[in-house]
Amino acid sequence: MEENKFKRTTVTAALPYANGGVHIGHLAGVYVPADIYVRYLRLKKQDVVFIGGSDEHGVPITLRAKKEGITPQDVCDRYHKMIKDSFKEFGISFDIYSRTTSDTHNKLASDFFKKLYEDGKLVEKESEQYYDEEAHQFLADRYIMGECPHCHNLNAYGDQCEKCGSDLSPMELINPHSTISGSKPVIKKTKNWFLPLNEYQGWLKKWILEGHKEWRPNVYGQCKSWLDMDLQPRAMTRDLDWGIPVPVEGADGKVLYVWFDAPIGYISNTKELCDNEPEKFGNWEKWWKDPETRLVHFIGKDNIVFHCIIFPTMLKAYGDYILPDNVPANEFLNLEDDKISTSRNWAVWLHEYLHDLPGKQDVLRYVLTANAPETKDNNFTWKDFQERNNSELVAIYGNFVNRALQLTKKYWDGVVPACGELQDVDRAAFEEFKDVKDKMESYLNVFKFREAQKEAMTLARIGNKYITECEPWKVWKTDPKRVETILNISLQLVANLAIAFEPFLPFSSDKLRKLINMESFDWAQLGSTDLLKAGHQLAEPELLFEKLEDDVIQKQLDKLAETKKANEAATYKSEPIKENADFSEWEKLDIRVGHIKDCEKVKKSSKLLKFTIDDGSGTDRTICSGIAKFYSPEDLIGKDVLFIANLAPRKLMGIESQGMILSAENFDGDLSVTTILKNVKPGSKIC
User: Fold this and answer.
1) Which of 98, 141, 544, 606 could disulfide-link to 159, CB 3.0 to 4.6 Å?
2) Taken in order 423, 428, 429, 434, is the CA torsion positive or negative?
3) In sequence order, what E strands does 23-79 have?
4) Is 151 annotated as a binding residue?
């Protein structure tokens, strides 16, 4: 069915696990594009509902709880609030952001499973699964770790290797062990209920491969690769103690599989919304069962199979639900040329960003959209973030708006002047932006948000070019009437920018509307040349965006550097021990204790320090050491150190060095001078 045949749209955004915060990878992949699309539909006065929520079941929650020594519900409560508050502050305009631990969800998911069971749509079968004999429980995929068979990472999970990104099954791991007890698991049989995907393969091929060729190539291609293989039944239940209990007899100790449970959260959250606001949203079933409703899922590429194959099969098996019309999944966003990883804390976390850069929501929204990984993995860097803010938002968009408002304030006290007779330059400007609405729609309708935002910025470029060519500050001296027309046209462009950027930059668009006293607008007005009438009073001009200085960006780079250093420390392994040496070789070295009487930097050298050492002989010894990058001379004077006393003297920067001070090299290259725990006399031998 074509888009214009639908009466309403249900938009869902992937439910984040409530075991940590949301990072820029999540935002770029799912939440910013979903919000852009919903805001666009609202501007078009279309009937739309935007559904979000926290995924609060599954192993990641229990892993976090075990790590912190608290209950899974404690984990969910903490992170649900953090995520919900962050989304709200960032401007992700959900109609509801609920959770899969709600009573509404528990009942709806349970009833959904029960109906499939009673209708004979599920298959009961035994399968082999790893079992922890010490913990007395079956092990979910994330409770098993071992060596990846592909890259040989020793810390791969039973479902995925986070180092090389390979999807795994627990049975593929080399030397698996339980993350609960550390013991080697055994294979044991268990009973579960399976969704027979193989029985729906023919239908899935026709529905997707023939009926949805318009889907993004990455989505269509991944679905095709799955459907070209023989689909197998997939377990919809798990042997766990955290989740929604399986509502059938003989299922004690089992819960619904999180990927059965979670997508039903879209439905239960819609029901919760409609039950709370029936006058605004009506009955929840019209959003999920009316064929005139369009369903769109926004997800990351790692969730394609669940949203395009498993969840649609569940809906089809149930019988009277609509199916997704589109699933615009994005690829992954990297951070500073490295894969974003929650386990390594290699991420820019939304709640931390909002704290560190208050009032800069739109800057991040703009940059993430400009770098959106719509067709391939993309990269976020803080330098690019700064450059786009300063060179595009400030220097192009903000600069044009400020020029137009300040000149109107200067010449007409902030009152919109009338538009007089048009000249060729005016007609050229109108011609350039007359198609902005059609161009943006052509991209927004097919989820190409990066290109749509470029068109909005093109409008600002047109404005800057126009006002620069017309030079109203010069024309004012000879033809004030002409300046009225120049500024009227400039202000019409400013008003159009408030509309064009609203889906992308809601905070600055709201600020701009206040600056031009434009109370409301809708998408249909985009491209109009008379949005602001002559005589309309503008507010006092203010800057729309601020330049980001180097020190602000450096703080973020320093934070990442600290994270990288902590990761290296956590995974540090010492270099292999050298081959055995003969004891007689060791005895040749004469290692002594030396007292540092004086220390100074060696001129014209960035590495060397010159030491005056009391070696106990009665005659001071001079030693040069390349540790100037790690110590200041005053930090070392008065210390006792270890040095090799019987090395042949060497000339360094013209200074005869009579020995070598011993230092330990850390994993990060930092040098630490070796010293002793008790006070001993200078010249004491090391034995």
Assistant:
1) 141
2) positive
3) 47-54
4) yes
Q: Which of 156-170, 532-546, 670-684 has the lowest mean pLDDT?
A: 156-170
Q: How far apart are CA 611 and CA 609, in angstroms?
A: 6
pLDDT digits (tens, 9 = 90+) for 251-291: 998 999 999 999 999 999 999 999 999 999 999 999 999 99
DSSP state of 5: G
Distance, in Å, from the CA atom of 325 to the CA atom of 314, rounded to the nearest integer, reads 16
445-454 core/surface letters (b: 16 or more CB in 10 A; e: else) = eebbbbebbb
What does the DSSP assignment read for 456-501? HHHHHHHHHHHHHHH-HHHHTTT-HHHHHHHHHHHHHHHHHHHHHT
Cα 336 to Cα 347: distance, rounded to the nearest angstrom: 10
Calculate mean pLDDT across residues 479-503.
Answer: 97
pLDDT band per the 50, 70, 90 thresholds, residue 3:
low
Instruction: Give kind and range of the element (H or E) at residue 411.
Output: helix 399-412
Angstrom CA distances, 479 to 292, 419, 470, 474, 486, stand at 58, 14, 12, 9, 11
158 backbone dihedrals φ, ψ, rounded to 5°: -70, -10
Backbone angles phi, psi at 14, to 5 degrees: -45, 140
Closest alpha carbon to 521 in 494, 541, 496, 489: 496
- 330 forms beta bridges with 300
Contact between 105 and 265 (Cβ < 8 Å): yes
What is the spatial order of strands in the sheet that 123-132 belongs to?
137-138, 123-132, 186-195, 234-235
Classify residue 537 by its DSSP letter: B
pLDDT tens-digit map of 177-236: 988 888 899 999 899 999 999 999 999 999 999 999 999 999 999 999 999 999 999 999
Is 164 flagged in the annotation as binding? yes
Q: Kind of pairing, strands 137-138 and 660-661?
A: unpaired
Q: Is the dihedral of CA 15, 18, 20, 21 positive or negative?
A: positive
DSSP string, 70-84: S-HHHHHHHHHHHHH
User: CA 163, 167, 172 angle in degrees (round to 5)?
Assistant: 95
Please give the model's pTM, rounded to 2 decimal places: 0.86
Percent of the chain residues past pLDDT 90, beyond the cut:
83
Kindly report the average pLDDT of the chain as a whole number: 94
Share of the chain above pLDDT 70, in %: 99
Q: What is the pLDDT of residue 643?
A: 96
pLDDT band for position 1 (cuts 50, 70, 90) = very low
The 3-class secondary structure across 435-463, one letter per residue, is CHHHHHHHHHCCCCHHHHHHHHHHHHHHH
User: Using CA of residue 359, residue 332, residue 567, residue 387, what is the dihedral sign?
Assistant: negative
Is 419 annotated as ligand-binding? no
Residue 650, H or E segment: strand 650-652
Say how far apart CA 112 and CA 100 lie, in whole Å.
14
Q: How far is residue 642's CA from residue 673's CA, in Å, rounded to a whole number?
A: 8
C-alpha span between 295 and 322 (Å, rounded) = 7
Instruction: In whole angstroms, give the CA distance from residue 147 to residue 275.
Output: 49
